[in-house]
Amino acid sequence: MKLDVIDFARSRAIVLFLLAGALLTTNAHAQSTSARPNIVLIVSDYMGYRDIEPYGAADISTPSLSRLASEGTRMTNFYAAAPVCGPARAALYTGQYPARIDFEKNIRTEADGLSSSIPTLPRWLKSAGYRTALFGKWHLGSAPEFTPNAHGFDEFVGHHMWTIGYYNHKTAEGEPGLFENNQIADREGYLTDLLTVEAVNFIDRNSDQPFFVTLAYNAALPPYQPPGLPEARWDEGWDVNEASRTDYVHMVERMDDGIGKVLDKLDEKQLSANTFVIYTYDHGGRHLVDSSPLFHGFANLWEGGIRTPLIMRLPGVIEANEVSPAPGIAMDIAATILDVTGLSANAASLDGVSLLPILQGGAAAPVRQFYWQADFYNFGQQRAIREGNWKLIEHDNTQFLFDLTDSPDERNNQYYRRQDIAKRLRAALDRWQDNVNGVEPN
């Protein structure tokens, strides 16, 4: 029997929310609020895997991210939960697969959004005494019941759409797109810089209490508008065919400058030793990006669409200047934050697991299975599973099997050689899809 997916997801979300509230309240008394680490989560958008120096960039200078990597651990087999913005971000905040919470496509209308009945990371942390803020992209709904404030963010300065202009802060349709909480914000300045200033000021104001700030940069989304453009060109950059790699490079480098200012403010306020800093992408990009050696990009389940950088730093807890090949996925970020802050990652039955044992250097990575299903725009119907080094991907009616250690570029198809592995992974993928879609087992 197939259950109604929406009712199934909503009912499950309500139960989990009540359970999470009870368990997190209990845990909140177990650890002094003042002793909990601060959390800074930084998210880039629409970028290539190789487009920061810790992951091999040769034509982009990112000294701030290089510093962060040298002081923490970077992971080389980390994945987005989806290859497009909305579902990827929903998984990041909920710790659950997009399919499980019935949020698998980008929002199209004001009636679309991430229901505030679903428990999310900012609400868990706010309930535990954290001051919470989001500066930058939300893209999970603009109606009152879907906004960042409805999900537990005390402060929000940013945008609800997939992107806005870096100078005029307008949407692709020419409408005002920058908000402060639930009101249109009239601000001047380059968007990357505005978001950086908001984050720095938030840290300055809240240095005497635990805080959780998400800095979700627009970079490096279109419009391709690097810093320093004259006002006459502030409406340009929407057509990738008229942009250049140089434009993209300058946008990324300005973002790295902003990250450096955030790290400097943590140093200035003597907070670095007790602040968990996380950097990742929402998913892969396309066109002007460099994702080598990975194949494909945005909206695809090939590696270029879903494998992303992840850098984590927490001095004295996470190993410094280390590289981890352990596989991980976006939902693990929520689970790891809950673990680091002393809140139970099991409270909300997350699909992610805490990476802390691996990041501390004392545990071997468990063999796990990661799953994806996607049907976006004109890119075809896709689904994929990764287990250990093996990845099975189905793109429309064609199946591929790769050993990602041997073929990270997904060019050496092993399906014809190892149909035994393909059959086993396909069966596991079928079971997962039945589970998240609410299909009862036979």
Please give a structural write-up.
The protein is an alpha/beta fold. The protein has two domains: 12-368, Alkaline Phosphatase, subunit A (3-Layer(aba) Sandwich), CATH 3.40.720; 371-436, Arylsulfatase, C-terminal domain (2-Layer Sandwich), CATH 3.30.1120. It contains ten helices and 14 strands. The strands form two sheets. The chain has a ten-stranded mixed beta sheet, with helices on both faces. A four-stranded antiparallel beta sheet has the order 11-12-13-14, with helices on one face. α3 (85-94) packs parallel to α8 and α5 packs parallel to α6. It starts with a helix and ends in a 6-residue tail after the last helix. Mean pLDDT is 91; it is low at 1-31.
Care to count the β-strands?
A: 14
Helix/strand order, N-terminal first: HEHEHHEEEEHEHEHEEHHEEEEH
- Physical arrangement of strands within the biggest beta sheet: 6-5-4-3-7-1-8-9-2-10
CATH architecture of the largest domain: 3-Layer(aba) Sandwich
The CATH class of the largest domain, by name, is Alpha Beta
CATH names the topology of the largest domain as: Alkaline Phosphatase, subunit A
Estimated radius of gyration: 21 Å
What is the name of the CATH superfamily of the largest domain?
Alkaline Phosphatase, subunit A
Counted up, domains total 2
